[in-house]
Structures are given as structure tokens and as C-alpha cells.
Amino acid sequence: PFAEVFRNHKRPFILGVCSRIGSDVVFYAFNIMILVYGSTKLGQPRELLFNAVLIGATGEALGILVWGKLSDKWGRVPVLITGAVGCGIWVFAFFPLLASSSVFLIFFAAFVGNFLHSAMWAPMASFIPEIFPTSLSRRPAFSAARLLPLLRPCW
């Protein structure tokens, strides 16, 4: 099945892997960078930053419910694009808010960043299998989703 995917379904496979890479990069930017950049470059207390990550997790959980419902209504691709564009815009507000030293603004930056990220994550479990023909079952989707961890050391 894996050889068939590479032979006959390269485009959906690459689309599935790239969509996962995009959402993972955004997740790490909003969650790991808040800890690393916030503590080392901005001198924020680590306890504050850990709490911001927890607030961000709340935004992610809420967003998964909201964006998952909207992806059933609008479709997977419009929600994924909304999340990607929203995160691309939000990143320009995220770092200045993080540098503000305001507890509220740091929590707000984490919450909104993760809420927008969830627009890229919520429809993913349905999006990847839907881009492959039903005759292939879910094996290529599984392969596309599982290949990404092998590629992570490359970037």
C-alpha cells in the first residue's frame, strides 16, 4: 500500500504531510517559544509562562470544539486556511504581547494563539483521510500522519 501511495497518490500524500508540518510549526511557535523566548530573552518568570501555556491549552481545547463543528459545516479546507491565515497574522501580535510584561496580555496572546492553531488541528483527523480515495482505506492517511515524526530531526 505504501508503494501504491507513492506511485499513484503523491499529491495527497505530500498535502497531508505538509498540512501536519504547518500545524506543528505553529503549535511549537506558540507554546515552546513562549517558554524559551519569554524566560531567556524577556526575563519573564517561568511560573508565569507555564501558566500562560496552561491558558493556551484552554484556548486549544475550546477551539477544537468550535473549529471542529465549523469544519463539519464549512468544510475542512476553509477552516484549515482560516487557521493558517489567522496564525500567520497573529504571530505579529503574539511576540509584542509577550514582551509587554502584562500578565493579562501574555495570557491573552497564549489563548488566542492556541485558539487559532486549533483551527488547523481540529479538522486534521478528517481532512487527511478525505484527500485519499476510499479504495485505499485509511492506510495512506495513517502513513502521512506518521511519517512526520521521522522528518522532524531534519528541521
Beginning-to-end CA distance, first to last residue? 27 Å
Helix fraction? over 70%
User: Structural class from helices and strands?
Assistant: mainly alpha
Largest sheet, if any? Answer: none
- What is the typical, i.e. mean, pLDDT? 85
Tell me the overall shape: elongated
The rounded Rg comes to 17 Å
Query: What is the H/E order?
Result: HHHHHHH
Number of strands: 0
Low-confidence stretches: none
Number of helices: 7
Strand content: under 5%
Structure description:
With 155 residues, the chain is mainly α. Helices cover 84% and strands 0% of the residues. The protein has 7 helices and no strands. Helix 2 packs parallel to helix 7 and helix 4 packs antiparallel against helix 5. The longest helix has 32 residues. It is elongated. The two termini are 27 Å apart.
Précis, in short:
The chain has 155 residues and is mainly α. Helix content is 84%, strand content 0%.
Secondary-structure map with pairings?
Blueprint: H1 2-8, H2 10-41, H3 46-74, H4 76-98, H5 103-121, H6 124-130, H7 139-151
Helix pairs in contact: 2-3, 2-4, 2-5, 2-7, 3-4, 3-5, 4-5
Keywords:
155 residues, mainly alpha, 0% strand, elongated
